[in-house]
Amino acid sequence: MFDILYINTVYLFLAGNIVWGEDDVFLTLGVVMAANPEVEIQLEVKALVLNAVVHDLLRMAGGAFSVECSKAELNITATTSKVVGRLVGEYAKRSGKAHGQFEADEVNFPVQQFVRQFYETKTIDFMGLTEAMMKTLHTRASKTAAGGGHVVFAYIYHEGIYQLLVAIVTEEWGAALGNDKDFADTAILDLKGFRFAGRIDLNEWQKGGDKYLSFLKGRSNEVSGYFKLFLGCDSSITDSAETRTLKAALDIFASESGMEDKQRSDFFSKAYEICSVLNKAGDPIDLQTFANELWPGNPPALMQVMGREELKLSDGFVPDKRALKAFVQFAGKTKAWEVKFARKAMLDGDVVFNDDESLTLYNLPAELKERLRKEIKDEEEDE
């Protein structure tokens, strides 16, 4: 999943702790030095776990919550790197996310204030950041019927972006095989089934973007607003903008799938029909249901594209009627002219996009041809 480390020599010794190996392992921060100073070392570091810690959110008998904070950060070992890498990878795969920005009210939604103190003013360290966030999480959880779990915080550098990941992970039953080849019960972390998680793109936040914060929405408002309120995420979305983002995702999928012209046209026509039904009913889109209906042969493949982080496609918007037109037609204009035609027109040969990037139109309407003939004739007579 991640390109971790490239080294052009093996004459190395390590100061610090550097880990590489499996394709989902994050590299831990350290210093690499050459045994021979004249040997050139080239490193390309794309993923770093900078800090990580696990605190516990405990649901007590009677429904009250309590918080148990760890006394120290996790050591960034190979295992820590694998766990964080797995969580980041699983989070990236999920398409049922909402994207937004911090609420402006930092009194009732203080997480942005904590992040600023950690990342910008550096008045608190990573432990101080996570302990403050746990207090807010406890406050928000206390008003819900949510369960508890292990709250994993990770400060990450990934492909040029500094990120903060928060995920509530629970345990599940597992079995281990002992030296005597006998099974034994064991509890393992469920790194794929977590329901509550969020991520902050700190670079985008610092630049003043509007989609730097994301969280898992879940189905049927499963998150019940609790994790959203904890993060202080304003996820109000523009239906037209999200519909255009969905169109971009479908374009990518169609291209990467190698669809021929007719298959591509049918694909977008079906997407248009599905979304139009939702628009008329005023119903929000569920991307999993949408993928199942649009691409029943392999919905996970479509979900993987729609869930790509660079798209930041939110779930739960109502497809916009006007933006949906782009699914089945092309349009463009300059100051002097405007053109609009259905995708089917290209399949039927009525519109041809030439190699020199000019456009040729065939089967013009009789009325238009008559008007053009008259225009040309009048110009010739004037000469």
Topology:
Layout lengths: L11 E5 L10 E2 L1 E5 L12 E13 L5 E4 L9 H16 L3 E6 L8 H9 L6 H16 L7 E10 L2 E9 L1 E7 L5 E7 L6 E6 H6 L5 E4 L9 H6 L1 E2 L4 H18 L4 H21 L5 H8 L4 H8 L14 H4 L4 E5 L4 E5 H5 L3 E3 L5 E3 L4 H17 L1
Parallel strand pairs: 2-4
Antiparallel strand pairs: 1-3, 4-5, 4-7, 6-12, 6-13, 7-8, 8-11, 9-10, 11-12, 14-15, 16-17
Helix pairs in contact: 2-3, 6-9, 8-9
Structural key phrases:
383 residues; alpha+beta; nine-stranded mixed sheet; 25% strand; disordered N terminus
Give the structure's gist in a few sentences:
The chain has about 375 residues and is of the alpha+beta class. Helices cover about 35% and strands about 25% of the residues.
Describe what you observe in this structure.
This protein is α+β, with helices and mostly antiparallel strands. The protein has 12 helices and 17 strands. Helices cover 35% and strands 25% of the residues. The strands form 5 sheets. Strands 2, 4, 5, 6, 7, 8, 11, 12 and 13 form a 9-stranded mixed β-sheet that branches. Strand 7 and strand 8 form a beta hairpin. The relative contact order is 0.10.
Specify Rg, calculated over alpha carbons. 27 Å
What percent of residues adopt helix (DSSP H or I)? Answer: 25-40%
Question: What structural class do the secondary elements suggest?
Answer: alpha+beta
* Distance from first to last alpha carbon: 69 Å
Largest beta-sheet characterization: 9 strands, mixed
Name the shape in a single word: elongated
Mean pLDDT equals 81
* Total count of helical runs of at least 4 residues: 12
Give the strand content.
Answer: 25-35%
Number of strands: 17
Order of secondary-structure elements:
EEEEEHEHHEEEEEHEHEHHHHHEEHEEH
